[in-house]
Automatic annotation (TrEMBL), chain B:
Lineage, uppermost ranks: Eukaryota, Metazoa, Chordata, Craniata, Vertebrata
Organism expressing this protein natively: Esox lucius
Region described as Disordered: spans on this chain: 124-160
Biological-process GO terms, alphabetical: GPI anchor biosynthetic process
Keyword Membrane attributed: yes
UniProtKB keywords: Membrane, Transmembrane, Transmembrane helix
Key word DNA-binding present: no
GO cellular component terms, semicolon-separated: endoplasmic reticulum; membrane
Bilayer-spanning residue ranges: 312-331, 403-430, 436-458, 479-503, 509-533
Protein name: Phosphatidylinositol glycan anchor biosynthesis, class Q
Length: 188, 615
């Protein structure tokens, strides 16, 4: 085995809280550096076609009544701009958690257009990584989060950074990630 | 604890030599800044490092040795080992890299130990020498790993020693030029606790180390980011040379201008009051202050000062450019003349509309029945004012075009000045509406106060000024009689006054809205940080929000290699951090307080300028 061990999808298939299938990839670069990637489903072409057809049908019907070509061109522009905004700002392709012992934790979301938004939290500021419960609408969900230290109060928590917010994996996936993280955090 | 070594990318292919850098206090990390090559004399190296330490304020030291063996340099390894005795330190790093391999190997020799020990014992010693409070925990942790390591098939000896060191590669030039946000007030290196901040601070303060490199004719030959090729721009150098006389000239002109403004003649009370109310005068003084900041001959010391100066300068340039464009557009087809010709009929029309409005109010507006006498008095009073106003405008009509022509030229001072002039012109042209509003408001206010006071009398109470509360009071018969009479009169005249007040307040609100929009635009142009945004777009590494790590492809048996990139600041944070302070303030009354004031008839000034600047 190479230094970077690679676990792909195992026998367990993971789902998110709404029941859609997601996949978890754990990569161990060294004894104290691990990377976890949770990927959601990609943009489905059928949904795109349904939305586009709906918008254009409406536009044609309005054009039929008003005889104004501006309606058609504005429908095209709206569809294009809406799609661009969706894949660039809304649709998250995969989320990554990179834990480097004694350096810090890096949280990154990668969008469908390729844009990546990253945040790095130094180890000095991290108190712990825990699984928390939350009440979301009518149900209780579990989520993984990082507790940050309060500079004024050594035993207090100043803020909570939730992880994997777009993919929202269920407890079995979270437990696996949690155990791996705790191994590294315990070492340093 | 894991040892972190921050290694510059430019030294990846450097020849063998000594590593020069800085051990970060309080953290188990070292920042490598440069590599000194052979041949060198250790005494000269020590002297050079001592000199740079004094110049830069960074506690530089020789961290260890770097070996990248090429053909014909076989004896280098042993030579490098001997060097350890010449430079006595805490820990000595032996980094080595072989051609064809990507990863480095590292040996860490602890204090007071000679030669290479057996790996396990060395690790144990290193752990014992570590900072207080952690040795016990680390020892236990290490033992667990040892025990676990024996059970594993791979990741044994070579992996164990590699496991304790992380190499973080950084691009030296970018880290040197970048600024970590939030920029706190300057703290000495030793006191800040964040590791990344210390790394950035070390590299940026070591600029004096990067003056000499291996191509210079000096006793000490270094490799750092300058060795890849020095960069410079002729235009930037020329501008730097030209900026000093230009700054001095501007400063001199500004001194003349401010002394003129502050002279006794112009400081007479009415002029001062008027100039503090007019937007254009305020904007002029604001811009003068800005230019004084920009043209000061002292260099900006901190990053915030530098950004502020640059932003002000760019905003001024943009302003003037937009102003010149406006002049070009206005004067090209004699639009100024057209504007002047259109102004008089527009003023006439406004006056006519107002007259019609007053005639409507004097009749039966919206079916309400007004008190005829009061109605006629108020209506005629306001009509006379409008008549005066129209005569005044007609008197001015031959001069309007010339005035407008010269006023339009003043837009070369900037678009903001032109907009504030426009706002002032609107204020002057609608002065009669302002007067009507004040008359109506005062009348209404008096009426409301009278009513409240007489209502109290009606109920047998009185306002106690001493105690600031309502007390009961016994009135005489004739006092009560007159009070009730007055109360009835005021009450029945209330609808008329209230209607006039309502109409004129609405008109005033419209004018205030227009002026407010102009003022907001001026504010926006004044405070927009153009330079900071340009920097964020073209040189995104200079404004850093944080860092990003990515794992470089690793080989078995070598320690972990990470690449540290700079994570640039988001656009919204750039605008928020670098907005120039402006002089205007947003309405400080909430909507509820505003409605209350309107109801009571108090005069409102929603866009009052503050004398002190706020962010």
């Amino acid at each position: 085995m190479q230094n970077g061990e690679h676990f792909g999808m195992e026998d367990e298939t993971y789902t998110d809280i709404d029941g859609k299938a997601i996949s978890l990839e754990c990569q161990s670069h060294s004894g104290f550096c691990r990377e976890f990637t949770v990927s959601s489903a990609k943009v489905s072409i059928s949904r795109v076609m349904v939305y586009t057809c709906a918008v254009w049908m409406t536009a044609y019907i309005i054009f039929f009544f008003t005889e104004n070509t501006a309606v058609l061109s504005s429908a095209i522009i709206i569809t294009l701009v809406g799609m661009m905004i969706h894949i660039h700002f809304v649709k998250v392709d995969h989320e990554t958690l990179l834990v480097i012992g004694s350096l810090g934790v890096q949280v990154s979301s990668s969008y469908a257009s390729g844009r990546e938004s990253t945040d790095f939290i130094e180890m000095d500021k991290i108190k712990d990584i825990v699984i928390n419960e939350a009440i979301h609408m009518q149900r209780v969900i579990y989520y993984l989060c990082i507790l940050l230290k309060d500079p004024s109060d050594p035993s207090g928590v100043s803020s909570v950074v939730p992880l994997f917010q777009s993919s929202k994996p269920r407890l079995n996936c979270l437990v696996k990630v949690y155990r791996s993280c705790q191994e590294i955090l315990a070492k340093c | 604890m894991v040892l972190k070594i921050f290694f510059p990318q430019c030294c990846n292919k450097a020849d063998s030599g000594l590593l020069v850098g800085h051990w970060l206090p309080g953290q188990d990390s070292a920042v490598v800044l440069a590599v000194i090559h052979y041949p060198f004399i250790p005494g000269q190296v020590k002297q050079y490092i001592h000199q740079i330490r004094g110049q830069s304020g960074v506690d530089l030291a020789v961290l260890g040795s770097w070996s990248m063996p090429k053909e014909g340099q076989e004896g280098m390894e042993s030579f490098l080992r001997e060097l350890r005795t010449i430079f006595p330190q805490g820990r000595w790093l032996q980094l080595s890299r072989e051609m064809g391999k990507i990863g480095f190997t590292c040996n860490v020799l602890p204090r007071d130990q000679n030669g290479k020990l057996v790996e396990q014992e060395k690790e144990l010693e290193k752990v014992e020498n570590d900072l207080e409070g952690k040795s016990g925990k680390d020892g236990r942790g290490w033992k667990n790993e040892e025990a676990g390591g024996e059970g594993k098939t791979k990741e044994e000896k070579t992996g164990e020693e590699g496991d304790k060191v992380i190499f973080v590669h950084y691009e030296q030039r970018k880290v040197m030029l970048s600024q970590l946000h939030p920029t706190d007030p300057p703290v000495p290196l030793t006191q800040s606790t964040s590791e990344l901040r210390q790394v950035f601070g070390t590299v940026s303060q070591s600029e004096s180390l990067f003056f000499l490199d291996k191509y210079d004719d000096s006793p000490v030959k270094l490799t750092h980011w300058q060795s890849e090729g020095r960069e410079g721009s002729i235009i930037v150098e020329l501008m730097k040379q030209a900026s000093t006389p230009v700054c001095l000239l501007t400063a001199w002109i500004l001194v003349l201008w401010t002394s003129l403004c502050n002279s006794r003649i112009l400081n007479v009370f009415p002029l001062r009051f008027i100039s503090s109310k007019l937007c254009s005068c305020v904007q002029l003084s604001y811009r003068t202050e800005h230019l004084q900041t920009v043209s000061s001959p002292t260099r900006a010391t901190s990053h915030t000062d530098y950004m502020r100066k640059a932003n002000i300068f760019m905003s001024f340039l943009l302003d003037v450019t937009l102003g010149l464009l406006l002049i070009y557009w206005l004067y090209r087809e004699n639009r100024v003349g057209q504007l002047a010709n259109a102004l008089l009929p527009a003023a006439d029309r406004v006056a006519k509309e107002l007259e019609e409005l007053l005639q409507w109010l004097m009749g039966a507006p919206a079916g309400l029945k007004m008190n005829r006498a009061l109605d006629q008095v108020l209506g005629r009073f306001f009509l006379y004012h409008i008549h005066l106003w129209i005569s005044y405008i007609h008197l001015m009509s031959p001069f309007i075009e010339m005035i407008l022509w010269y006023v339009g030229l003043s837009a070369c001072l900037g678009l903001t000045f032109a907009l504030s002039l426009l706002s002032d012109i609107i204020a002057l042209l609608t002065f009669h509406i302002y007067c009507f509003y004040v008359y109506g408001a005062r009348l209404y206010c008096l009426k409301v106060y009278g009513l409240t006071s007489l209502w109290r009398l009606f109920r047998g109470r009185k306002w106690n000024v001493l105690r600031q509360r309502v007390d009961s009071c016994s009135y005489d018969m004739d006092q009560l009689f007159i009070g009730t009479l007055l109360f009835t009169i005021l009450l029945f005249l209330l609808p008329t006054t209230a209607l006039y007040y309502l109409v004129f307040t609405l008109l005033r609100m419209v004018v205030v809205m227009v002026q407010g929009v102009l003022q907001l635009t001026v504010d926006f142009i004044n405070s927009f940080p153009l330079f900071a945004l340009g920097l964020r777009v073209f040189r995104s590494y200079t404004l850093a929000e944080g860092v990003k790590f990515s794992v470089l492809c690793e080989e078995p048996g070598t320690p972990l290699h990470l690449m540290m990139d700079i994570n640039p600041l988001k656009f919204s944070s750039v605008v928020q951090t670098y907005r120039t302070a402006t002089y205007s303030c947003y309405p400080k009354d909430s909507w509820l307080a505003l409605c209350k004031k309107l109801f009571l008839g108090e005069l409102i000034y929603p866009w009052r300028h503050k004398t002190t600047k706020i962010d």
